[in-house]
Write a structure and sequence with these properties.
The complex is a heterodimer. Chain A is of the alpha/beta class. Chain A contains six helices and eleven strands. In chain A, strand 10 and strand 11 form a beta hairpin. Chain A starts with 7 loop residues before the first strand and ends with a strand. Chain B folds into three domains: about 55 residues, no CATH class; about 90 residues, Helix Hairpins (Orthogonal Bundle); about 120 residues, Orthogonal Bundle (Serum Albumin, Chain A, Domain 1). Chain B is built from 14 helices and no strands. In chain B, helix 4 runs antiparallel to helix 6 and helix 6 crosses helix 8. The N terminus of chain B is likely disordered. Classes of the chains: A alpha/beta, B mainly alpha. The interface between A and B is large, with 39 and 43 residues.
Chain lengths: ~210, ~280
């Protein structure tokens, strides 16, 4: 598998790990311009660390749903083109705003990812949708936001089983979510994110 | 196009004047995304796409900052004022209701404590010095009740802003009362679950600590359905489970603010198991 341009495996003192070039945002180790991307704090980071082919090449236009405090989206913006970061909760948005200080290609949007109509007047059609929202109906969010992708456009999503149903076994939640996703997307890869994230499934898909 | 289906225009349609553009970013809509950078250049709003992204960066940041600031003005201290004002209004309204009811009973054979009677009394055209005072007082009672109602509506809207997870789990009113009893969301988040469990039952707790009473099972969280709906033998367990989840919710709200919808399902699951165990 290939890492996107702008993402490298580098050594930080005694440890090696993924890294991107940009201003540090959460006290991560740095080496010159490079800063470490902690797979324990980022589902996309975990996918890359687990050697999953993400189909990311670097430089894409990105719509990131569920940006939270901006840990992952800061790395995404480091190696991507224009990056739209949607987050619904005001509290983490304050931290996300700090992340946008040094990243002119990162646009913070305090919007509900379940209602794309509220940000379609800002977000252009993109190459990639990356989704990490902890809400019930995660597949529906991906379907509603497919309008930002052309046919063949890339979707990278981290499904969290516990957000759907805490009592149902994760695998059965995942297969339900995936079959819902398949109404509009072709799934290329599905991969559990253990040991970095419990009960999470990473999915790489393309819009039909 | 009609009003239900407005023409899709980008956030820059009102120009790049900061105030206008920020407002459009915050409240605008479009049914479908379009190639906004190209359209902005075409409309000569910006000279080139680099310029477009620079403007977009500034305006989206300003819009997000504005929304965050608005959110933060609805802070936990304001919730405490709302809760206390609500309690004062309700208590005073109840006291005056009794007074007016008793007074009106000496005057009017149909008198009752029903809200309908109070409204009728308040709307009456008074006759003479004494009845004028009675009708006026009834009017205050009706107004006080309306005020209490408005305060409660305000609480229901403000609490989820300050503590979304706690409010989801406990309901806005109980969430606000817990915050008020603890003195703020920060001190609530720092309390152990066992303390949250007996907040509002301080008299019983201190009687117990002095050595001659059994410990209280629950404080204000008694009003939660998870406890009220559980048979009395299992209420201690239910209170412990509920207090645990509420403590987690308060901490998530205070330290991260992210939504954790799974907490509600976890609580429901836990309570269900406690009740099932009791019925065996």
């Amino acid at each position: 598998m290939t890492l996107p341009a702008g993402v490298e495996q580098r050594s930080f003192g005694s440890e090696t790990g993924l890294a991107t070039r940009g201003e540090p945002v959460y006290g991560e180790p740095t080496d010159g311009d490079w800063r470490k991307w902690d797979p324990h704090r980022s589902k996309l980071g975990a996918l890359l660390e687990l050697d999953v082919e993400t189909e990311l090449h670097g430089g894409e236009t990105v719509l990131y749903l569920g940006a939270a405090s901006g840990t992952t989206v800061s790395h995404v913006a480091d190696f991507s083109g224009p990056t739209y970061a949607v987050e619904f909760a005001p509290r983490p948005m304050r931290d996300l705003l700090a992340v946008t200080d040094s990243r002119p290609n990162l646009f913070p949007l305090l919007k509900d990812a379940r209602k794309p109509v509220e940000y379609a007047h800002i977000v252009e059609p993109v190459d990639v949708v990356i989704q990490d929202v902890a809400t019930r109906g995660q597949a529906r969010v991906a379907l509603e936001n497919s309008q930002f992708l052309d046919a063949g456009g890339l979707l990278i999503v981290a499904f969290k089983a516990r957000s759907e149903d805490v009592t149902e076994p994760p695998e059965s939640v995942f297969s339900r979510l995936c079959s819902e996703l398949e109404t509009e997307y072709d799934i290329l890869t599905r991969e559990r994110l253990e040991p970095y994230h419990q009960d999470h499934l990473g999915v790489i898909a393309k819009k039909r | 196009m009609n009003a239900r289906n407005p023409p899709d225009s980008g956030w820059f349609v009102d120009g790049l004047d900061r105030e206008q553009a920020v407002k459009r970013v915050r409240t605008g809509t479009a049914a479908t995304p379009q190639d906004w950078p190209a359209l902005a250049v075409e409309a000569e709003v910006v000279s080139e796409t680099d310029d477009y992204y620079q403007q977009l960066h500034e305006i989206t940041r300003a819009a997000a900052r504005e929304a965050v600031t608005e959110h933060e003005s609805a802070d936990d201290q304001q919730l405490i004022h709302l809760v206390r004002a609500l309690d004062d209004c309700q208590r005073t309204a109840n006291e005056l209701t009794e007074r007016v009811g008793e007074w009106a009973g000496s005057y009017d054979a149909d008198a009752s404590m029903e809200p309908a009677y109070f409204e009728e009394l308040a709307a009456r055209e008074p006759d003479g010095l004494i009845e004028r005072r009675l009708v006026s007082l009834a009017k205050r009672v009706v107004e006080l009740k309306a005020e209490a109602n408005d305060l409660e509506v305000a609480l229901e809207r403000a609490t989820p802003e300050v503590a979304p997870n706690l409010s989801k789990l406990a309901g806005p009113l109980l969430a606000a009362r817990l915050i008020a009893l603890a003195g703020g969301l920060d001190s609530l988040a720092k309390k152990p679950s066992g303390t949250l469990q007996v907040l509002g039952a301080e008299d019983a707790l201190f009687a117990h600590l002095k050595g001659n009473a059994s410990p209280p099972k629950h404080g204000i969280i008694y009003t939660h359905e998870a406890i009220r709906g559980t048979p009395s033998g299992d209420r201690g367990s239910a209170a412990r489970a509920l207090a645990g989840k509420l403590t987690i919710a308060a901490r998530v709200d205070y330290y991260s603010g992210e939504l954790r919808p799974e907490l509600a399902a976890e609580l429901a699951d836990r309570i269900e198991r406690i009740r099932a165990r009791g019925s065996q």
